[in-house]
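Q: I'm teaching a short session on how sequence maps to structure, and I want students to see two examples side by side rather than one. Could you give me a first protein with its sequence written out and its structure tokens following it? Keep the formatting plain so it prints cleanly on a handout.
A: Of course. Example one:
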Amino acid sequence: MQSFDALTRVDAASAFDALASLKIPAQLEAKEPAELRGAGRDDVRLLVTPARGKEMHASFAQLADFLSPSDLVVFNRSSTIPAALTAQRADRSDVQLHVSTRLPADLVVVEPRQAIVAAGERLRLPGGAFAEMLTPYKGSRRLWITRLYLSEPFLAYVSRYASPIRYAHSTQTWPLAAYQNVYADEPGSVEMPSAGRPFTFEQLADMHERGIDAAFVTLHAGVSSPDHDEPPYEEWFEVPAETAAAIARARRRGGRIIAIGTTVVRALESALDTSCRVVAARGWTDLVITPERGADTVDALLTGFHDLRSSHVAMLGAIGGADRIARAYRTALDARYLWHEFGDSHLILRAS
């Protein structure tokens, strides 16, 4: 007889395999910021996957109605930096470089978009700078460890010469402000931690007035991983002591921990001590969260709608259950929710 854990792995794999076979229609890809489609950045829909029962349809403005005064909402304060550069090869052809993650010693992880590069190749960058391709990043077919030769500090350089990363579903270039969360104040993510995008200062103030506390972590998000079976790679995170203390206080008073985005879950799960308590921590994490591993630091997750093959969906299954997440995604497709960073929101309450 199979063990319960083995059955859980089989059920989760079956649910996600079925989910990965679904297609996201092009018309459900959000191509522009919500404020251009409606009344403001919070003018998006909210699908709620409750602990029990069927999904509920709401608006993002109603989010606080699903929370309680004893709850703690945890945000990722990492802000987005421009990270798309046009480089020139020795034959004068152009290649797009997406800078993903900053490493020590002036090294970075980059993604040459739709280009094959070689170790030792030097690419000319704007402003007299160079990028030297050193070696493929571990376990990746598309990412390279690269040394940048810049004439000014990294953040100053990309602010001057780079543009925000965007993908094919976005039909035009948007300013960097479109890729920022209103509360973010620590530059470092090259792709917006987009779960928090619909929040406005007014909504944050309303939550505070309702007695819903807030805390912050930092996780600098790199480029997304579109390759099937390619795991997430290391990203820098920090969980401050005050956030660990706020989580402990919320637990003592019976409150729930609400993560705003998968990056928050990844940071908190990377900051567990041997007693499975969240403690102050910082460093690099390559943690992959799946239904088999579980995720016990949060009771709910607010997120967007993810690529159906991505590791993010497995994390959702760790919190909401693989079958419930598969059903919720089918509901979202049937109800024509919008995908990607400018799309609609999904509140997942932990399965009972």
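Q: Perfect. Now a second example for contrast.
A: Example two:
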Amino acid sequence: MVERIFRTFENIWKIPELRERVLFTLGMLAIYRIGAYIPTPGVNGTELSKFLHQNGGALIGFFDMFSGGALSRFTIFALGIMPYISASIILQLLTVVHPALQALSKEGERGRKVITKYTRYLTVLIAMIQSFGIALGLEQMNHGQFVPHPGWGFRILVMITLTAATTFVMWLGEQITERGVGNGISLIIFSGIVARLPSAVLSTYKLYQQEEISGFVLLVLAAMVVIIVASIVFIETARRKIPVEYAKRLVTNKMVAGQSTHIPFKINTAGVIPPIFASSLISFPATIAGFISVPWIQSIGKSLAPGSFSYTILYVMLILFFSFFYTAVVLNPADIAENIQKYGGIIPGIRPGKTTAAFIYKVMNRITLVGAVYLAVVCVIPEILIYQLHVPFYFGGTSLLIVIGVSLDTSQQIESYMMSRNYEGFLKKSRIRGRIA
């Protein structure tokens, strides 16, 4: 297996186009990581970083994960790619409910370009609002300790800096998608998460040297890492295949023979959207409570603090809800059944039309439940590791789902390049055929 991996990396450099794409991707990611260390002008980043590490709360830690530590250091990439992710989710949800956007989504390439343009505009707007709000908040914190020269000049400077940086990160992601390998936005998030792993591993090892965690706990942690990663890979690549048979039909005065195929449904259709939504909602009260000295707000913040029983229960319930909600948004059983019937297909043993739609809806509910429970389990694991085993880094949940998902997608794209030129990829050819079939 190790020999195959080394041979694969060697073959990458033998394909000029793939080599250029890989080098371009690495170069763009390097630029992003450099920008994550450029300080924001007008802010005492050292003092602010200390304060956020001590009092930032769960929400700050969650968004800091997506920015690769840029938020806690308050560099120019502090907002990271989160405004773009928020804009994309908003536009995707509006596409379902807004007739004009729904019509655009059905216009093919032209409609996709228009929706992408709207996403960019919304990203800039969200970044401007967030950056201006951050500037106001910094001025009011610790009586000017973090902002030596407050005022409108400082607010506008921070707003322009953070918004321009977010727009640049968005551009980097689009360039990687177009001229590199893999999805650029996903790879930017991936690089931010992976960049923090070495320090996390080093911190764990220091705890072991200081005998704050035992060797047994360290071995259990390593075993859990292997089991969790293997389980996530298995679920993320799992599909529920619904067989479909197409009868003979006449196409341009030519009879086309019938064929048997299938509709693959992912077990985890919603991806990482449910944990992101759930974490944002549940962490907001706890973060607000850290900055407002009102008794009843403090009480709510404590009850929803990570590690508490109420936090875990509410977190799981929100993940289950958003899993079903998002799957219902992106998949419409009625449309799928209509398309099957339109092209003369049937699901064996199921009548066309409403009966087919009901069958698909039933299957979707079952696999969505499995996927939702899987997401909940993976996302609760960090609570156990951090607050029970005192692991000094965030392992599992959204970060692990993103890392593994992006790794699988990128490796599959590299494989497709290599297999099209008769080179061996990361996996055996027979396995690739089996996965695609």
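Q: What should students look for in example two?
A: Point them to this: The first strand starts at residue 239 and ends at 246. Also worth mentioning: The mean pLDDT is 79.
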